[in-house]
């Protein structure tokens, strides 16, 4: 984990961008010794967002199962698909 002051970001933005991209990890920015913000490459942010979306979808599906939602076997799904597409 990298921790830098907000002043460092302001004074040497290019160096911070290069450091964060090379290490592919966020930089935690502080002001007056207190955490204030996180600086990270957009690719890393997008990856983390995709992971969070996947986790949220997994949780939603697990909650549906717990609530008693109907589930289908592969064979049932194939049959339903064939019926919808008129291939059955």
Report on this structure.
This protein is α+β, with helices and mostly antiparallel strands. The chain is built from four helices and three strands; from the N terminus they run βααββαα. The chain has helices at 6-11, 13-23, 42-66, 74-85; strands spanning 2-5, 27-31, 34-39. The protein has a three-stranded mixed β-sheet with strand order 1-2-3. β2 (27-31) and β3 (34-39) form a beta hairpin. It is elongated, with a radius of gyration of 23 Å. The termini are far apart.
Brief digest:
The chain has 88 residues and is α+β, with helices and mostly antiparallel strands. It contains four helices and three strands; from the N terminus they run βααββαα. The N and C termini lie far apart (57 Å).
